[in-house]
Amino acid sequence: MIVSKNLCFTYTKPEETSESISFEKYSAALTDININIKQGEFIAILGRNGSGKSTLARQLNALLTPTEGTLWVKGLDTADSDNTWRVRQSLGMVFQNPDNQLIASIVEDDVAFGPENLGIPTEEIRRRVDDTLRTVGMREYALDAPQFLSGGQKQRIAIAGVLAMKPDCIVLDEPTAMLDPSGRREVLETVKALNRGSGITIILITHYMEEAATASRVLVMDGGKLVMDGTPKEIFRRADEMKALGLDVPPVTALANRLIEMGVPVSDSILTVEDFLNDGFIQTLMAGA
Amino acid sequence: MKRITIGQFYPGDSVIHKLDARVKLLGTLLFITALFFVGNFSGYIAGAVFIVALVQMSRVPFKLLIKGLRSVIFILLFAAFLNIFLTPGEDVVFSFSFIRVTREGLSMAGRMATRLVLLITGSSVLTLTTSPIRLTDAIEYLLMPLKIFKVPAHEIAMMMTIAMSSIAMLMDETEKIMKAQAARGADFETGGLIKKAKSLIPVMVPLFYSAFRRADEMAAAMESRCYRGGENRTRLKPMKMTGNDYIAAVILAGSVILILMVGILI
Q1: I want to staple A253 with a disulfide (CB 3.0 to 4.6 A). Which of A90, A91, A249, B166 is the partner?
Q2: Is A242 domain-assigned?
Q3: Structural domains of chain A, count
Q4: pLDDT digits (tens, 9 = 90+) for B197-246
Q5: Which of B11, B224, B234 sits opposite A121 (nearest CB)?
Q6: Contacts of A118 in chain B (CB under 8 A)
Q7: ipTM above 0.95, yes or no
Q8: Are A149 and A274 part of one and the same domain?
Q9: Given A205, A232, A259, which residue is the final one in a domain?
Q10: Which residue in A101, A116, A144 is closest to B234 by CB distance?
């Protein structure tokens, strides 16, 4: 689905002299990224601010193109401008700020914006709008104004808007950063259901370790490089390395790691509270009490 | 909280909401043009009756219209004042050194203010009942003839829509910035006009900054959803004139002509 080979990206800044403007390269944002993401995966990307997560997301959507190396989305080279629209159709993007990505002032008009741009016939747009709004559980808000909805609802509409373009993959760039816990849950449940139900590849950029813990694979970035790649269990076992990267592990994993250090025989692959409660040792403890 | 209702949309499913946006847009333009030919109060009363009837049918709360007027009250007063003092006339009502208030001036000011009120409420009815997307479509349609002269009709219409839908957001942002600065001791209340204006400069800078950032994010969001201008775009709700729309168009045109006749002849 998504393959990159030695992907590098450098932001340029214009250097203005009295005679000409030259573009000087500065600060590499991405260095030598090699990834291979398969259809149906649920990927979480972690990394501190400025580690290149969002730049990578924009690469995937062809909003930016590699300065070196190559990135293929569904076999299409994103650097080729003939592919730009097909790449964007098959790989949708949801941004952090819900207010700045909703274009229309009625929910259903906003969902229709993508398909309208693709030139899809009216009846088919209608069908897609109704279907996707039902999928994200916002059908009854179709005629409302987004400005009166909650943050979680707005993000679900943004997801519906992307979904209406029938993508194979959705990239979400910190979609829950501005939401309250219930909004965060709404968005995450929606995304998970899409992944499980329709087999849509999800790439979730996040600062919340609990969200990353539910992914099928976690990528960790630092300083524009991909530094870790593995299942959540493999990644969160390396708590010290994560800390060195300015990141954390889920609180319950940290607790389990500490218990193991103290010699308590709990499993070393605990990621959620449920994992912890279902752990063999904890179960016997509770049975004893 | 201060709110400008011009450019805001009040969703609903009334007759007026359902009316073809082109009809509404042309109707509004016609009404505004007519207002400039109407010179007497009976004409204005006819205009007001027309607007009240439309608002009733659209089921938009009157409160919203009044709020919209409140935010432009200064422009209204300013226009009225200019007219009171600058209209030449013989019938002096009141004079003090070089200031002369004439009956002609007062009547001119009254007419000007009424005209502005009708103009603003009239266009508010349009934007309150028409979703910006429909309005864009209508503007684009009406600009179509200009495409021959390479006028980017779709782009102009899209820019206007986004500008209008951003007004509310800019107001909110201004309020936030002012509160943040007031919390740190900024003073927007005291001092003369010039001092007050100067105290707004530190508000404008962050406001522009956030507006540009929003524009940038919005552009990225639009591009990532395959927006590439008006070419090959289809519509969820294509513009189609129905029998009702034609009837409404005739009624609208008739009402405006009636207002004109009342305003000029009676």
Answers
A1: A249
A2: no
A3: 2
A4: 888 888 899 999 999 999 999 999 999 999 988 788 888 888 888 898 99
A5: B234
A6: 226
A7: no
A8: no
A9: A232
A10: A116
Work out the minimum CA distance from A279 to partner chain B, whole angstroms. 44
Domain-located, residue A237: no
Inter-residue contact A69 to A33 (CB < 8 Å): yes
Give yes or no for A140 touching B (CB within 8 A): no
Q: Is residue A243 part of a domain?
A: no
Same domain, A168 and A281: no
User: Minimal Cα distance from A113: which residue of B?
Assistant: B225
Q: Which residues of B touch A89 (CB under 8 A)?
A: 226
A-B interface: how many C-beta pairs under 8 angstroms? 94
Percentage with pLDDT > 90 across chain B: 26
Residue B47 distance to chain A (closest CA, Å): 29
Residue ranges making up the domain that contains A275: 250-289
CB contact at 8 A, B133 and B118: no
Q: What is the pTM of this model?
A: 0.79
Q: A80 and A54, same structural domain?
A: yes
Same domain flag for A182 and A263: no
Q: Are residues A284 and A200 in the same domain?
A: no
Residue A241 falls inside a structural domain: no
